[in-house]
Amino acid sequence: ILASLGLVISHKRAGTIVQPNTNWDALSPQVIWWRLDDPKQRMNQFRSLVEMRIAFEPLAAALAAERASDEQAEHLMGVARRLEKAGRQGDQATYLVHDKVFHSLVLTLSDNHLFANLQFGIEEILEGRHAYGYVPRWPNFDAVDWHINIAEAVVAHDPEAAYRYALAIARRSAADVGLSDMLNPMGFSASQPVLD
Question: Which terminus of the chain has a lower count of CB atoms within 10 Å, N or C?
């Protein structure tokens, strides 16, 4: 398994050789969790995950708003409503379940197989924030509302709004793990969506 993840290679005369971490399969959930479990690598791993999320999730949300059927959009809205209910009740475990489903569904509804295959990266961010105590007892209610706003944008087939609110959520996620200063080169507030 280590060789399949790029951690080691085997040579007949040299034996097993540990590879530098630049050769590791950085998108493997196992590698992501190994790095998150290591306190020395944790923040760099969160940074990489959040930067990746900021780069593709807003576009995936915009594509979902353009491409999702009405039935798919209504399904997303249902998930967003369940997420909202759990968030407002402070039920972190249920909130996390619906949050993972919501973001995975947005990526799937983008109808881009490459984005859909990156679902695990979003899941690792969400699970990692919970596992390492980067979530408050009550979720940020702005972020809860932004999930509803994304679903509304997908229902309305409004890609610009879907993009903006997805970007706001990704930036909020960066702020939650203490990375807002590194991920805000345009000077936008990490707690507010980028609106006109």
Answer: C
